[in-house]
Amino acid sequence: MYKLEITESEEELKHLLKQQKTASGKERVQLLYLLKTEQAQTVQQAAQLLGGHRVTVQDWLRRYRKGGLKGMLELVLRLCKNLRV
Question: Which of 7, 25, 36, 78 is paired with 15 by a 20 to 30 Å CA distance?
Answer without folding.
Answer: 78
